[in-house]
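User: Hi! I have a protein structure encoded as tokens and I'd like to know what sequence might fold into it. I'm fairly new to this, so please keep things simple.
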């Protein structure tokens, strides 16, 4: 097995998620040697750390200013990433194919926005579940219409602050007797910006991917300033019920934000500053259904291990009587 292959297997368990806790190269070499097969020099290991940290597909990333390495945040899933690039380039991918740097820059914006959406939901007492395997390379294009990029769970929790995120036992019991889910499950489609030529596709993908949930949302990073575009989205919402949200984060603001890993691991004061940059605007409110489409969910469960993971997570929270975030 090559050194790079070994490092790709070993490094994820050794590297910290938080760039602020980056591990120095000397210490990383010491830890790697405990699991490495073969006799490699320190210089060879440092060289591979440096080369791999420049590869967006590798598990290791180097801090931008300073020393040390951390675990790279998950890449943008292939299908949703390709569709976002297609939208950003107005359908002319040839414009980007000749400039790999532009592609990486555009995908970094997507990663930042996904991180912002995740943190925003968590801070507002909602529990996100990200679908990734469904949009991985080699997955059928139909998955763009079959799964949401993010499923969001709203639990009914108790009013006592001392109980934290404990579920409201009385409400839980009542909903179980009525055959209602003890949570509200919605599906969301994430996009950087809306345009007159792409908003219908965005909307109907959000609708289609959330049919098995209790409601759907289409979430844009950039502000929606075109009146005709906003009216078109509201007209679709009036008929089909998918909510539309803008976080008011322009391309320039996204480029100015720290990397996704820094957003996800920011300290409370840093997170507060990041959230202040959001100019939240609800273009149209979602309409929720009382029931989940269990037959459709069961079909998806047989097609996707991620759906099984979602169900097991929800069942675990109910069994424990606590609303808990999904462990990475």
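Assistant: Happy to help. Inverse folding works backwards from shape to sequence: for each of the 328 positions I chose a residue that suits the local structure. Here it is:
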């Amino acid at each position: 097995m090559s050194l790079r292959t070994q490092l790709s297997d070993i490094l994820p368990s050794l590297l910290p998620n938080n760039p602020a806790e980056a591990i120095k190269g000397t210490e990383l070499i010491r830890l790697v040697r405990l699991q490495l097969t073969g006799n490699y020099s320190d210089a060879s290991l440092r060289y591979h750390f440096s080369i791999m940290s420049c590869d967006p597909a590798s598990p290791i990333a180097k801090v931008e200013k300073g020393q040390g390495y951390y675990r790279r945040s998950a890449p943008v899933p292939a299908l949703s990433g390709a569709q976002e690039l297609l939208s950003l380039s107005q359908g002319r991918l040839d414009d980007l194919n000749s400039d790999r740097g532009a592609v990486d820059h555009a995908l970094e914006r997507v990663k930042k926005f996904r991180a912002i959406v995740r943190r925003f939901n968590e801070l507002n007492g909602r529990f996100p579940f990200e679908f990734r395997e469904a949009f991985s390379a080699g997955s059928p294009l139909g998955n763009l219409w079959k799964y949401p990029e993010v499923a969001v769970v709203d639990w009914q929790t108790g009013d006592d602050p001392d109980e934290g995120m404990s579920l409201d036992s009385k409400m839980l019991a009542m909903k179980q007797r009525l055959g209602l889910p003890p949570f509200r499950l919605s599906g969301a489609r994430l996009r950087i910006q809306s345009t007159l030529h792409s908003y219908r596709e965005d909307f109907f993908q959000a609708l289609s991917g959330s049919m098995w949930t209790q409601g759907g949302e289409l979430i844009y990073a950039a502000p929606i300033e075109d009146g005709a575009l906003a009216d078109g989205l509201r007209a679709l919402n009036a008929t089909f019920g998918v909510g539309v949200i803008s976080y008011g984060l322009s391309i320039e603001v996204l480029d100015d934000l720290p990397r996704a890993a820094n957003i996800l691991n920011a300290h409370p004061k840093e997170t507060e500053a990041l959230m202040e940059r959001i100019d939240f605007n609800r273009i149209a409110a979602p309409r929720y259904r009382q029931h989940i489409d269990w037959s459709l969910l069961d079909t998806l469960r047989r097609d996707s291990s991620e759906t099984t993971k979602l169900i097991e997570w929800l069942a675990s929270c109910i069994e424990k009587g606590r609303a808990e975030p999904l462990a990475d």
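A useful reference point when you look it over: The CA atoms of residues 301 and 311 lie 8 Å apart. Feel free to ask if any position seems puzzling.
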